[in-house]
Amino acid sequence: MAVTLPDLPYSKEALAPVISAKTLEFHHGKHHKTYVETTNKLIAGTDMENADLETIIKKSVGDQAKTGLFNNSAQVWNHTFFWNCMKPNGGGAPNGPIADKIKEVWGDYRKFAEELKNAGVTQFGSGWAWLVLDGRDCKITKTANADTPVAHNLKPLLTIDVWEHAYYLDYQNRRADFLAAVIEKLINWDFVNANFK
Ligand code: MN
After folding, report:
1. What tens digit of pLDDT does each residue of 29-58 get?
2. 43: Cβ–Cβ under 8 A, 6 or more apart, which residues?
3. Is pTM, for the whole model, over 0.90?
4. CB within 10 Å: which end of the chain, N or C, has fewer?
């Protein structure tokens, strides 16, 4: 099988209380797993059977006959990336090259954090908040449903899932509180710096 479900890069309990073990159990073990299984069903026996995930995403985006494949493969990519964007005892102001870039673009970390949170809060319905590189520009964006910067030649540096399944068990409707907690307590800046290189 070309597409696989990676293990979480930490235990299911590791992100509590910001994200509970129960949420990770469903989010990784049910939602992410189903996107992987559906992607594999849709590529079986086609010319994309052995393609890598980014190729599948780029070849299916905008093709009405491949909407299901785009949605599922993009969700596989987004979730694998999202898990790596977090770690226990992460969050807060960054160090390293991304800290300098944030200072250059946003002036200070607080303004950056507010804008990232706002991108997630204002995404109407399901989607994702992102920090991306657009050429040499660093910007905050949001995407709807499964859409991903990977499909639009942008380089993702950081994401936060704002689908209700990401936070509803722990925060119910309080998406802003979920975003604030992830930003302040979980962001894996080492991973962001590695993507920024
Ligand atoms: Mn999700």
Report:
1. 999 999 999 999 999 999 999 999 999 999
2. 2, 3, 49, 51, 56, 69
3. yes
4. C
